[in-house]
Amino acid sequence: MEPSLNERLDFGKMGHGCKHYRRRCSIRAPCCNEIYSCRHCHNEATSLLRNPFDRHELVRQDVQQVVCSVCDTEQPVAQVCTNCGVKMGEYFCTICKFFDDDTEKQQFHCDDCGICRVGGRENFFHCKKCGSCYSVGLRNNHSCVENSMRHHCPICYEYLFDSLKDTIVMRCGHTMHHECFQEMVKRDNYCCPICSKSVVDMSRTWKRIDEEIEETVMPEDYRYRKVWILCNDCNDTTEVYFHILGQKCGHCRSYNTRAIAPPIVLLGYSSSNRWSGIGCGVLCHWADIDILQFRSGLKCKSMLTKLRSVPPKHALSLFVENPEP
After folding, report:
1. pLDDT at 28 over 80
2. CA distance 142 to 167
3. Structural class in CATH, domain 216-256
4. What sequence ranges are listed for the domain CHY-type (predicted)?
5. Residues 40, 42, 48, 54: is their CA dihedral positive or negative?
């Protein structure tokens, strides 16, 4: 008895493939003319080549030929084999040249990403600024970082955009593999490896440090010593009393801070008897002058007009670059 059309299409389903995908075909890589089960198998093999100039990655959209795993017929890319009539993949994308029999992954093609994703189209949205698909739970609920997914994981350095591993968007907006994030936190590292912002709620830890500082009296020589700090969480600069257990940000109350040189603006005195400022930073107060924080060159100029009465001999000549986040 002749098998029905559906039986022929489903023949061998989930019985072929590699460790990456269940599929009933292999691909011929146009870059090296070799046959591999999938592009990941190709990339893994070529990354091990002795000559570094021979190492390369397969561009999925460039695949033109596939080989049916059931009848071993090579043919142009299509979902159904032209010889034996089996579906070479229950899910098939004509753009990515992608085959997969395991449809429980809920594959879908994102036109904005330009590649196929898993997890169901209804469960994701494409963030234009971040340049990738995120879970709908992150819609209007994450810090956007331009093209944040088009970078390498800061821990294992695998490219994140088309990685098979789950990724996580941290509070700061930077991304990394979820398993790398868990491993990092397990080792008591709670700061983003890229920007150093806190990646978890640290309020309880800050409260504990408050209590420890209150109970720890500094030696007389250090008790009234002040230092300038930069807060990694809010990027604000503050002058605080030094303590061996940590320096607390005066703006957001975080202890995720680091000591910096005093951020002083370079001042000059022109022939027109007017003050001028170069650069951005913080002008430390002198006499009765309050601390003025400058955000741009234009604002520097406008705020420095308030200091015309200060004698030229008191002009500060040090300049410290204002750190960027």
Report:
1. yes
2. 14
3. mainly beta
4. 11-86
5. negative
Residue ranges with strand state E in the chain? 25-28, 35-36, 65-68, 74-76, 91-93, 98-100, 108-110, 115-117, 124-127, 132-135, 167-169, 175-177, 226-231, 237-241, 257-260, 266-269, 275-278, 282-283, 292-293
Which of the residue ranges 41-50, 263-272, 285-294 would you say has the lowest mean pLDDT? 285-294
**pLDDT at residue 262, as a whole number:** 86
Mean pLDDT of 274-282: 40
Q: Domains of the chain: which residue ranges?
A: 5-105, 111-186, 216-256, 266-314
DSSP string for residues in 244-309 = TT----TTT--S-EEEE-----EEEE-TTS-EEEES-SEE---TTPPPEE--SHHHHHHHHGGGTT
Read off the DSSP letter of residue 87: B
Neighbours of 246 (CB within 10 A): 17
The residues pairing with 283 across neighbouring beta strands, listed in sequence order, are 292
In the chain, % helix, strand, coil (3-state, to 5) comes to 20, 25, 55
**Residue where the block lists tokens 């963030």:** 127
